[in-house]
Every structure is written in structure tokens, then in C-alpha cells.
Amino acid sequence: MSSGITEESTSHFITIQEGGKAYRLHYNDTLTGTDVVVMLHGSGPGASGWANFHRNIEPLASAGFRVILMDCLGWSKSDSILCAESRSELNARCLLQLMDTLNINKAHIIGNSMGAHSTTAFALANPGRVGKLILMGGGTGGPSLFTPMPAEGIKLIGQLYRNPTIENLKRMMEVFVFDTSSLSEDLYEQRLSNILARPEHLQNFVRSLQAFPKQFTDYGYRMDEIQAETLIIWGRNDRFVPLDVGLRALANLPNAQMHIFNKCGHWAQWEHAEAFNRLTLDFFTH
Predict the structure, then answer these.
(1) Is 266 marked active-site?
(2) What angle do CA 172, 241, 144 make, to 5 degrees?
(3) Secondary structure class of 255 (helix, strand, coil)
(4) Which CATH architecture group holds 11-285?
(5) Which residues, given as ranges, of the chain have pLDDT below 70?
(6) CA-CA distance, 163 to 181, in Å (whole number)?
(7) How far apart (Å, rounded) are the C-alpha atoms in residues 43 and 115?
(8) Which of 108, 266, 272, 286 is catalytic?
């Protein structure tokens, strides 16, 4: 990471309104750059914008983009929330308030897993506020035609939320990525520390699922409304959101292209960071 771009140096908070209540929303912001790229993280326990995208910030910032990572309500340093509705649309409303507060009229958006569902919700609700979109491992909320649902990885996420142990974390991470040799004990310990630091996030996520099981809306029937240029990125070996779900998104989006990484699980931007960064920069600059 280049000098000056650290989690601490880019850390900020705003207060937003949701359901008549005030919530603190955390985000990281590199502050400089003309065009803005917003990155939205996935839903795994202990996830954050920084944890999801720390390998992808510097190339974009060095190319002149202002990079913003939003921590959704219920994750990382943002306040916790009980979500008894579409979480995709909740996150989209939070992003709109963040952009309005920062006086950002339009942004490119990169969404990973839950973040891809939230990106789709935001683009549908605010078509004039989006530039280009990148969807990874999510976006439609629809089922796989070939893999029993919920998929293997989603079941393991549920177990980790309900019983956050190092053993359950390792079980989840072993199917999260294709090559587990890059998963160190330090990484496991740091992720578990992040999870245990905010037990209310875990409790509210489980309660949210009980109150509203379909947290991520199926937008498949509406995706043809999205006119923004879209790059769909998927891992061929994704055991959380199977590849055919990405092909469904490709079929429904009128201005989309798709890149599939072989030997890649659910975390393309981390597993194939250098290639992902080149792909992303090329897409945003051409």
C-alpha cells in the first residue's frame, strides 16, 4: 500500500437516518481524485470494506481515482441494525446518503457478494448516480439452477454467525477461496478478532434472517432496466454463489460483459488481485 493510504488514515464517519433513527456509518476515503469508485463489501462475519478490498485500493488511487469503501450497517465500525426487509435496499439507501453527504453526484461502484446485490439495488433506484458497475459473486439474488440452495458456503457462513469459533471460521474460509495455502494463522486470528469485537453485529444478522429470510432481493426480472456498462467477475470454483448465477446476470443486463477466473472461489479481488486490478482499471478508463 502506498504511503498515506492506510485503514487508519482513510477512516471517517457520518451520521445517517434510517427508519427514523440515527446511525453512525463508517467509511474509508482516499479523498483525492476526480472520478469516484465506491467499493461495497460482502456479508461474511467480520467483513469490512478494508478487509475485502485492501489489495485493490492503491492501483485505482494511483490512476487518479478517489476510492471510497463503505462499511454497511451491521459490519465493522458502522452501527448495528436489525434489518427486517431487503438488506440490498437498506444498503443502497445508506450509500445514497453517504454520496449526498460527500457531495458526490456520480460514482463507479464495485460490489462483492452482498455488495453486488446492493450495487444492483442502488443502480435500479438511482440510475443517474452511477457510472460503470462491477458485480462479483452476486447481484441478482436468484437461485442456481444446478447447485442445491443454499450453497455450501452460505451454510457455513450461517454456522459461523451462530457459533463464531476459529474452527468454524476455518471451515468457511476453506471453501471461500480456491487455494487455501495463502490463508495464514495470522489472517484467521485477525478475522476472528474482528468477528468477536462486535457480537451485536452477529446477533442482529441472525435476528434479521429470522425476521426476513430473503435478505437479498432477486432483481433478475428487473436487471434489463440497468443501462450502465457492467463488468461481471466470477470465480469458476465459487462455492458460495455458483457460476450459473453470474451467467444469469449476464443474460439479463443489456450492457454487460463477463470475466471468469479459473482456480478462483468467491473472492476474486483477493485471490487474483493483480489481474483483477488490471481488469478493473481497463474497464473504468476505456
Answers:
(1) yes
(2) 135
(3) coil
(4) 3-Layer(aba) Sandwich (3.40)
(5) 1-3
(6) 25
(7) 8
(8) 266
